[in-house]
Design a protein that fits this description.
This protein has helices at about 95-105, 155-170, 200-220, 250, 255-270, 270-275, 280-285, 315-320, 335-345, 350-355, 355-364; strands spanning about 1-10, 20-30, 40-45, 60-70, 75-85, 115-125, 125-130, 170-175, 185-190, 225, 240-245, 300, 310, 325. By secondary structure, it is α+β, with helices and mostly antiparallel strands.
């Protein structure tokens, strides 16, 4: 049986240095429980999104992930799309396509999982919620995981967003107020629910859809959302997208700690390459202060929030699980972050060279 409803087509544009979300809607006639292939390809004016010239402006949208639309209701869907050129090759701005190639090279048996801890700042009239019209609020400290109108600002949006993610079927794990007033975090990733996996491509898709829902919910409250890495200069924490990563070997009790140590050693040799893909404006956040490691350094440690790579204490005690890469910024592209981690941890130099020939020539 088929239903008629709205489909919101969502894609990433060509804005530099940080891509932005775009979307437009159409009526579709699809099965009650559709998959991406049930939705028709569409096109858009790439000259208005930084992805084409006016003389040859058409770009193609191909649906890749479908979830329920929690606002428009029954029969309506959110349709995440990849951007293609008119010859159906991936557009230069399509980093999801590169992640797909990287995962194919790694092989299904490696089974890399990711989880993303997305921080963001809620703004009204250009100021974070909780900031006075002039000057600054009391120093950070009481705002983290806070309760009460004098220290918690923006819970209306954080709760509405979490509910929208649940209604859409996204793998949202939790939410909390962060260290700076008006700053919040939500997590996408493994929830310990039987039958759920957290494969890298799906979790990156879910994060982009969750970002879309955050922006759309913010419209209802008249708020703006910032993913800036250092939304307020001075003695305030920046905003990150800490990324939890594991492979089948890292999750296995027999091989976990050895696989983590091997992964950290590989990551230490590619720090600069990762930083280049981990978001714009990272230097203002990764200063070595405010729970960060300096952008110039690479350090790993157990339960160390000032390290580049943190191994959680329970993981160290059990000897298997996952590690946390604390370097990615709040505005990082999860496709690019996941691709960096999978390439570095799982692929050989020869495989990476085949996947990134231009980067290999530049490094030489």
């Amino acid at each position: 049986m088929k239903t008629i409803g709205f489909a919101e087509y969502i894609w990433l544009d060509g804005t530099r240095p940080t891509q932005q979300i775009r979307s437009k809607a159409r009526i579709v006639h699809v099965p009650e429980t559709p998959v991406a292939a049930d939705f028709p390809a569409w096109s858009f004016d790439g000259s208005s999104t930084g992805q084409a010239s006016g003389e040859d402006s058409d770009c193609l949208l191909t649906p890749v992930r479908v979830v329920r639309d929690p606002r428009r209701g029954e029969g309506c869907h959110l349709v995440l799309c990849e951007v293609l050129n008119t010859d159906e090759t991936p557009h230069a701005t399509n980093h999801r396509a590169h992640l797909r190639r990287v995962l194919d090279a790694a092989g299904a048996e490696a089974d890399p999982w990711t989880g993303f801890e997305q921080e963001y700042t809620i703004l009204r009239a250009g100021r974070p919620l909780g900031f006075p019209e002039s000057g600054f609020p009391a120093p950070q400290g009481p705002y983290y995981c806070s309760v009460g109108a004098d220290v918690a600002f923006g819970r209306d949006l954080a709760d509405a967003h979490a509910a929208a993610c649940l209604d859409a079927g996204l793998m949202i794990y939790g939410i909390n107020a962060e260290v700076m007033p008006g700053q919040w975090e939500f997590q996408i990733g493994y929830r310990g629910i039987e039958g759920e996996a957290a494969d890298a491509l799906a979790m990156a898709d879910h994060l982009w859809l969750a970002r879309f829902l955050l922006q759309r919910e913010a419209e209802r409250f008249g708020y703006a959302v910032s993913f800036a890495n250092k939304p307020v200069p001075g003695d305030w924490n920046g905003a990150g997208m800490h990324t939890n990563f594991s492979t089948a070997a890292i999750r296995a009790p027999q091989t976990g700690r050895l696989a983590i140590d091997a992964a950290v050693e590989r990551l230490s040799r590619h720090h600069a390459r990762h930083i280049a893909d981990y978001g714009d404006g990272l230097a203002a956040r990764l200063t070595g202060l405010h729970e960060t490691c300096s952008i110039e350094e690479f350090r790993a440690g157990v339960a160390h929030r000032g390290a580049s790579i943190r191994i959680p204490q329970p993981v160290a005690q059990k000897g298997h699980g996952y590690f946390e890469d604390r370097r990615p910024g709040a505005n990082a592209d999860p496709y690019r972050v996941a691709a960096c981690l999978v390439e570095t941890v799982l692929l050989s130099d020869e495989q990476r060279a085949r996947l990134n020939p231009a980067a290999t020539r530049a490094a030489a």
